[in-house]
Amino acid sequence: MKFRAKMIDLGCLNHFTRVVNTIAKLTKSCVLRLTPDNLYFVLSGKVANGGVSMWCELLQVNFFDEYQMEGLSPEANEICLEVAPENISRALKTAQNAKAVKVKLTKKHCPCLTLSAELPSLSSISRVVTHDIPVEVIPRRLWHEFKEPTVPDFDVSIYLPPLKTMKNVVDRMKNLSNILVLEANLGGEMNLKIETDLVSVTTHFKDLGNPPWGDSASQSRSQSWDPEAMAHARVDVRKLQQFLIGQQINPSKAMCNIVHNRIVHLILLQEDMSLQYFIPAVA
C-alpha cells in the first residue's frame, strides 16, 4: 500500500482544514478511506443501537496538486485507515501559511500519516514541520462496513434554515431538555420543539422549500405523505447541537430528510464535498 499527496494552493489547504475541523467536532475517531478519485471520512455508528453515523466525501482533484495511491491490489485499489481527526486538525494548524503540505503513509513505530508543512522563512533555508499521526490499517474483510450509506426512504425532505440561526435556537433549547422534536412537512415548514412537564417551547420556520429528489423511491414515498402533515423525530439534543457546532464549511445547500419516528438525515453539500449525518430517533 502506498499513499502520498501534496497541497500547494493555500485556498485548498484552508478549505481542507475547515473540513477536517468539522469532522473533528463530530467524532473522536473515524475511518479515512482513500480511493484513486476520492477521500472519505466515515463514522459507521450503528443507528439501530442509538449511535450516529457520518459520511463525508471529498473529490481529491479539488484539494490536492499531487495525489498518488496504490491499494492492496488492482481489484481492491483503496486504503482504509482508522484515524483520530483531531490529530490531523492539530497538525494542519501548524500549516496555515505553508508553501506546501505533503501527506504520506509511512511506517514508523506503527503505521502513520506523516504530514510535512514547508513554512515560509526569512532565510534561504526553508523550515519544515513534520507530524507523525498514528493510524490503524483496516483489514479488507471489514471494508464492507465503510461503504456509502443509502439515502433512507424518507417521509419529508426539507431545506434547513440558516445553520447559525438553527444553532442559536438549539443552544437555548438544550438547557430545557435532553430531547428535542424536529418536525417538518412538504409545505416548507419546520419546527424545533421542546416539551416537558414544566414547559413547552416551539420555534417555527416557514418557506424553507423542499428539495426535488426526482424519481427515487423516497420521492414516491413522500408523495404519499400528506403535504400538511408533520413528519417528526425525537432526537438527543446534544447530537444535533454537536452537528451544528462543528459545521465550518459554509455549504451551498443544507437539507434534512426525516423518516417519521426513526431517523433525521442531515446533508451538507458543496461543489467539491458532501457531508451526511444520521441521528437516530429516541423512543
TrEMBL record:
The keyword Cytoplasm applies. This is Checkpoint protein. The keyword Cytoplasm applies. GO terms for cellular component: checkpoint clamp complex; cytosol; nucleolus; site of double-strand break. Signal peptide: none annotated. It is found in: Cytoplasm, Cytosol; Nucleus. It comes from Denticeps clupeoides (denticle herring). Belongs to the HUS1 family. Component of the toroidal 9-1-1 (RAD9-RAD1-HUS1) complex, composed of RAD9A, RAD1 and HUS1. The 9-1-1 complex associates with LIG1, POLB, FEN1, RAD17, HDAC1, RPA1 and RPA2. The 9-1-1 complex associates with the RAD17-RFC complex. HUS1 interacts with POLB, HDAC1, FEN1, PCNA and RAD9B. HUS1 does not interact with RAD17. Interacts with DNAJC7. GO terms for biological process: double-strand break repair via homologous recombination; meiotic DNA integrity checkpoint signaling; mitotic DNA replication checkpoint signaling; mitotic intra-S DNA damage checkpoint signaling; nucleotide-excision repair; response to radiation; telomere maintenance. InterPro entries: DNA_clamp_sf (IPR046938), HUS1 (IPR016580), HUS1/Mec3 (IPR007150). Keywords: Cytoplasm, DNA damage, Nucleus. Component of the 9-1-1 cell-cycle checkpoint response complex that plays a major role in DNA repair. The 9-1-1 complex is recruited to DNA lesion upon damage by the RAD17-replication factor C (RFC) clamp loader complex. Acts then as a sliding clamp platform on DNA for several proteins involved in long-patch base excision repair (LP-BER).
